[in-house]
Amino acid sequence: MIELSHRSKQILFLCCVPIVIGVFCALVYQFRSWYLDDAFISMRYARNVVEGKGLVFNVGEHVEGYTNFAWVMLLAMGFIAQLNVPFFARAASIFFAVLTLFGVFMYLRAKYRRNPVFLLIILLLLASNGDFAAWSNSAMETMMFTCFLFFGAITFDCRSYKPLFLSGFLLTMAMFARPEGCIPVVLFSAFTAVSSFIRTKNYRYSLLHAGSFLLPVLLLYAPYFFIRYNYYGYLFPNTFYAKVGNSILQVMRGICYTANFIFDYVFLIVPACFGYIFFFKRYFHFVLLILFYMGYVVYVGGDPFPAYRFLIPLSPFIYIGYFFFICKIYSRLKLHAVRRLLPVCIGITFVVQVMQVWYRHDFLRLYADDVTRVGRKIGMWIKEYLPSDTVIALNAVGAVPYYSRLKTIDMLGLTDEYLAHNNSKKGGGLAGHELGDGSYVLSRQPDIIVFSGPWGHELPLFKGDYDLYANPLFFEKYLFYTLPIQDIIFCCYVRKDNRYLVAVLDDFLSRL
Questions:
Q1: What average pLDDT does this structure show over 97-103?
Q2: Which of 135, 137, 235, 333 is the least buried, fewest Cβ under 10 Å from its Cβ?
Q3: Structural domain boundaries of the chain?
Q4: Strand pairing class (448-449; 488-495)
């Protein structure tokens, strides 16, 4: 181990922590232009509940088009406090990311005080992870879930009641943040019961330990689940039914998603695997969590967004495994000349990881993502110029519905009950973008239909677009419009028999 005096450790800490913070802030700034459009779905739910319209996307439609109850409630508090909620959501996401970084530091510091150099190295590596920084900036619940999951896992101790209750509470909060929080709850409760029975040979003792872990779930999540089920009528959120099927193609898509993640981080994941092998008995529950969580990601088919959103919650555990590896390797290397190679290898790891931010294809997609900026401008224009009772059908149901406040038909089915429950998911397409039913959309008689993204297009892109485009009734009932809005060209189809709306758009075009 690297032995330092107490004063040297303080100096090292004071010098390195600002560097860690600076690197993280620089990466967050690098992703400043990216703001996930789906974040506005949660904001719309939060705003509606604060305004007394119910926890709904469209007034009167009880559809659970979100998977992040705790995040929606946090955003609702922002509306109550009359904050700038889009800014508040991003700030809250960054806060939970910083809290996770702090948790990793405190956890390793408490257990491995003798090795502050490697501890700070691991903190720097996590802070310089592009995926971690990107999702810290997304205004989504990802970092909230990551934070609760991590703290719940590190406080887990199946030998004592108090840590079990605290861990159970934190993982219950993770369940409120994302439904997959149930994975560690099921795993750790089973692990507690089995390990307690093996240790004591007493059924009652093992059940008491498992019960102390599950008590927060029973007191908090069970009543919420009962109320939620009665309100929405389904066991799972609507988004689950819209995205997840049971096809082998879906599993193959999930395998590809997970394999790409492993390939991009092979320089971290392989050493982390060895790190957990070295400390297998002590951190067996971490290994279980990583394996089962990855299995879940494979089953649901991964995620369509860049920067590995579904696997971000595992990142603290991967870096902790990497920490175990370098500590063990350093302690076993006897030759000083060989030991000097370790910092070189760590430095190469850092450089490769940071360089990914500029050359990895999904980060390049992220930099080019203009959906939220365009959706915001179009939504504000619609709110200013079009009647408030206009009904719009589109695929990107984030910023446009949030800023326009119009009743919205989600053509991808995330917030639409019929599409989510009456269309099969083959699993071969883009995750979350496979649904579509043009006949259903026409039957709802929307005033405006928008193909592709929020900017619209004359030609179809998604399944629902193609269904509409192939339907002769669509062209009988709708006119195509191209509307210049500031620096954006907004393309949409407008219902012919809505003469007032057609007159409004014609008047707008005539005044250009």
A1: 94
A2: 235
A3: 6-154+244-367, 371-510
A4: antiparallel
Nearest to 371 by CA among 33, 131, 65, 132: 33
Q: Helix (H, G, I), strand (E, B), or coil: what is residue 406?
A: coil
Per-residue model confidence (pLDDT) at position 429: 80
Measured CA to CA, the distance from residue 119 to residue 114 in angstroms comes to 10
User: What is the DSSP-derived secondary structure letter of residue 55?
Assistant: S
What span, in angstroms and rounded, lies between the C-alpha atoms of 194 and 453? 50
| pTM for the predicted model, two decimal places | 0.93
pLDDT digits (tens, 9 = 90+) for 23-61: 899 999 999 888 999 999 999 999 999 999 999 999 999
Matching residue, tokens 């189809």: 493
Stretch among 18-22, 113-117, 403-407, 416-420 having the lowest mean pLDDT: 113-117
The reported pLDDT for the residue numbered 1 is 46
- In the numeric block, the tokens 């929606």 are attached to 72
Task: Supply the angle between the helices 116-127 and 315-332 in degrees, to the nearest 10.
Answer: 150
Q: Are 399 and 379 in contact (CB under 8 A)?
A: yes
- Distance between CA 121 and CA 18 in Å, rounded? 13
- Lookup: tokens for 498: 């809505």
The continuous run of DSSP H or E covering 484 comes out as strand 478-485
Pull the structure tokens for residue 263. 């390939």
- Label residue 367 exposed, middle or buried (CB < 10 Å: 0-12, 13-18, 19+): middle
Query: Which tokens in the block code for residue 437?
Result: 């039913």
